[in-house]
Amino acid sequence: MTAHDPEAMRRPNAPMTTYRYDEYDAAFVSERVAEFREQVRRRLSGALTEEEFRPFRLMNGLYLQLHAYMLRVAIPYGTLTARQMRRLADIAEKWDKGYGHFTTRQNLQYNWPKLVDTPDILESLADVEMHAIQTSGNCIRNVTADHFAGVAPDEIEDPRPTAEFLRQWSSLHSEFSFLPRKFKIAVTGAAHDRAAILVHDIGLRIVKNDTGEIGYQVVVGGGLGRSPFIGKVVGDFVPREDLLAFLEAILRVYNRFGRRDNKYKARVKILVHEKGIDEIRAAVEAEFAAMDRSAFAHDSEEFERIAAFFAPPPYDSLPATSASLRAAKLESPAFANFADVNVGAHKMPGYAIVTVSLKPIGGVPGDATSDQMRVLADASERFGFGELRVSHEQNIILPHVKQDDLLTLWRMLDAAGLATANAGLVSDIISCPGLDYCSLATARSIPIAQAISKRFSDMSRQRRIGKLGVKISGCINACGHHHVGAIGILGLEKKGQESYQITLGGDPTFSASIGEILGPGVTAEQVPDVVEHLVDYYLAEREEGEAFIDTWRRIGHARFKDVLRREGEDGADI
Amino acid sequence: MALISDGRFIEDAWRRLADEEALPKTGKFIVSLPRLEHAVEVLGPTATFGVIVPNTTEPSALIAALPRLDLISIAFPAFADGRGFSLARLLRRAEFKGELRASGRLVADQYPHAIGCGFDTIEIPDDLADRQDEEQWRSALNAYSMSYQRGYAGRGSILEARRKAARS
Ligand code: HEM
Ligand code: SF4
User: Fold this and answer.
1) Is the minimum distance from the CB of A187 to ligand 2 under 6 angstroms?
2) Of A289, A332, A340, A476, which one's alpha carbon is 20 to 30 angstroms from that of B153?
3) How high is the pLDDT of residue A12?
4) Rounded Cα–Cα distance for residues A422 and A453 (Å)
5) 3-state SS assignment for residue B29
6) Three-state secondary structure call for residue A36
7) Residue B150 confidence class, pLDDT cut points 50, 70, 90
8) What is the helix (H) or strand (E) element at residue A498, kind and residue range?
């Protein structure tokens, strides 16, 4: 494969279930590649200093990590075609070490690319309508969305057209590319929040008003990092035709008044916190009122143009439940476990949504090899209209699988080590790269995830425990979402030693909450013990149908704290 | 200082007045924001002058003087400080029709952003101009044929082009 592969360009995505570039999108992305190639050249020639080059390489997703550069590729709203997945696999083989890392923000990271190769990698991505634009830097980042978009039974509207609309609007925005800090937007269109919109700089929730009109509830100022906040409502119902104007108003207020004196206080969440949501809302409304909205008059047409790309694929009409699925489950208990845990309800009768876990027991959460990516691409073509999704839990979704095909699909996944039946369970851990890759890390996080996963390797025990979100970050920047883990684990450094702070009760959904600290930090070796004690206590205390977080909410943090203290007195030294 | 306009380094016809310098009778000159009110008061209607303002200036502080001003220069204290871009937009929205200038250590790659927000000219220190020659500014200006946003000058808007194509 050369960097530029015209053959790949001609092969269309079949059938169309996601956005396709037109000539303008294609020109834009290839101009971007050319610009970046030039920037790399100028950096090497000294025309650009490292300080000057930095924001531009970041806006193309290129980080300097602990051992090497890291390239973060955008997977807008988490949707991928089989063709794109294969290209990601090829790039990993050609320019990296044969694997990639799916992140919590619907991106894919390559951990070992060389600076001089990155323009070629970007060109290769552009061939399949992909890029790394604004996956980093102080700009509007890759817009994320519910990974069950378009197929979830609880959906009001597919959030992806909105996300694509925003992807275009935010790309190289002349006014908002040098913000005080990064800016993350997430969209959901469903009754359940799978996109963690309340912990984003802006969260958009598609809603319907009394007259049946679609609009957006706009939430601002959520975020994790060293000071976590739940977002607050700044607009209750913003009609679609006003969406961009309203967002521009928010961004303008943030760009002008967000703090720039201290990078830890520069996020919009701090502005909202310091000024109060009422003052921010007043400022946004004043700005919105002063804008010339005729400039936005044709947004609705553009939205409709984009929405047409996300038409449902040609589903067969099927009975709601599949007899062959029932029979297959009876025959193979292993398959039955997979079907019970990783398969979700689909809005179309006879279809299912399949979560492919990238969390094998003892594995690196979110990593996939090139071979696995190809298996996933093949599976999506055989069983799901060639479409895949990436979830913020770092898993892959096959969004349109016939129930009748589940058994064959499972066999195919199993053969590739992709059939771990743990979606949503205790070993489906979100973890940041931590000290293994990240220059900011204060502790390891991947090995902690691996140890917990191994501790709970008994899958029937995991199923008995039920839904439980364990999330791990290697420093207070919180890339691993530990604040919103039912069990959150934060790796710190105390006197040259790794020390892990445990929090309980975090929740990233519409009932969002930030976890509360359990007690003094523990050592890496103790983390699995602590998690196990907490889980055992929950199992002893839970009432019918309660998930871990429900029990914790009912009986309170203090009781969980007590348990650990008692364990400590028993000599367990926790 | 070097001045860039339309992708070329040009001679600066304007002179920045030191605060202790008396207001001249003729020529194009730029005063600092604290002297603006006084300048508007004492200078005749034919005087050609501009003002340099910090990027934190409230547009309302300039509204009264706007019709008298031929140039507004917005200071960029650091190239990554994007407040000047929003201020430029707000001044254009207030119908400022004169020359809008970005002054600071902007790098060539920011040229399209500046143009899109309504700037006409960029003023950079000489050491920066030595590293980033005219060629780099010109190629930055032409790096993109169109943009997704509706800007002020230069590049066409992709939205407009799509609409035209759909209509024809
Ligand atoms: C070299 C690698 C990385 C670096 C240097 C890095 C840096 C940071 C920093 C400094 C923050 C805090 C920003 C703030 O609060 O203002 C942050 C937050 C975050 N990062 Fe990373 N990160 C890295 C890798 C990742 C990875 C691999 C993921 C996904 C798995 C990720 C996802 C996030 C998320 C979701 C946040 C949430 C906090 C928020 O936005 O409020 N990051 N990152
Ligand atoms: S949480 Fe910290 S250690 Fe983990 S990826 Fe983010 S910055 Fe690195």
Assistant:
1) no
2) A289
3) 46
4) 10
5) strand
6) helix
7) confident
8) strand A497-504
**CATH number of this structure's domain B2-166:** 3.20.20
pLDDT of residue A567: 59
Ligand 1: nearest atom to the Cα of A184: 40
Q: Where does A292-445 have alpha helices with state H?
A: 299-307, 323-331, 333-342, 370-383, 406-415
Tell me what the mean pLDDT of segment A535-551 comes to: 95
Q: E strands within A150-200?
A: 185-188
C-alpha angle with apex A83: A78 to A85, nearest 5 degrees?
50
List domains and CATH numbers for chain A: 23-127 (3.90.480.20), 151-309 (3.30.413.10), 323-416 (3.90.480.20), 430-564 (3.30.413.10)
Query: What is the structure's pLDDT at A7?
Result: 47
Residue B23 to residue A489: CA distance in whole angstroms? 65
What are the residue ranges of helices labelled H in A135-207?
Answer: 160-170
- Please list, in sequence order, all residues whose beta carbon lies within 8 angstroms of the beta carbon of residue B132, skipping any fewer than 6 positions away: A47, A48, B107, B108, B124
* Å from CA of A440 to ligand 1 middle: 10
Distance, CA of A420 to CA of A361 (rounded, Å)? 8
Task: Provide the mean pLDDT of chain A.
Answer: 93
Which ligand lies nearest to the CA atom of residue A221 in the structure? Answer: 1
Query: Which pLDDT band, with edges at 50, 70 and 90, does A572 fall under?
Result: very low
| Residues A111-149: tens digit of each pLDDT | 899 988 999 999 999 999 999 999 999 999 999 999 999
Residue matched to tokens 């990078």 = A263
- Distance, in Å, from the CA atom of A179 to the CA atom of A251, rounded to the nearest integer, reads 9
Mean pLDDT taken over chain B? 93
Q: Determine the Cα–Cα distance for residues A58 and A73; give it in Å rounded to an integer.
A: 11
Please state the separation of Cα A544 from the chain's center in Å.
Answer: 31
Whole-prediction pTM:
0.93
How many Cα atoms within 13 Å fall on the side-chain side of residue A499?
11
3-state secondary structure of A514: coil
Question: How many residues would you count in chain A?
Answer: 574
Q: What order do you get walking across the sheet with A470-473 strand by strand?
A: A430-431, A470-473, A487-494, A497-504, A516-517
Look at phi and psi of residue B162 and say left if phi exceeds 0, alpha if psi is from -120 to 50, else beta: alpha
Mean pLDDT of A27-31: 95
Q: How far is A31 from chain B (nearest CA, A)?
A: 6
Cross-chain CB nearest to A174 (options B93, B107, B151): B151
> For residue A311, what is the DSSP state?
P
Which residues, in sequence order, are bridge partners of residue A344? Answer: A353
Best of A56, A57, A174 to disrupt the B interface (most B CBs within 10 Å) is A174
Q: Give the residue from A474, A470, A472 showing the smallest Cα distance to A444.
A: A474
CB neighbourhood size of A64 (10 A): 14
Alpha carbon distance A435, A328 (integer Å): 44
Ligand lying closest to the C-alpha of residue A108: 1
Closest CA relative to residue A61, chosen from A25, A12, A113, A124: A113
* Distance, CA of A502 to CA of A504 (rounded, Å): 7
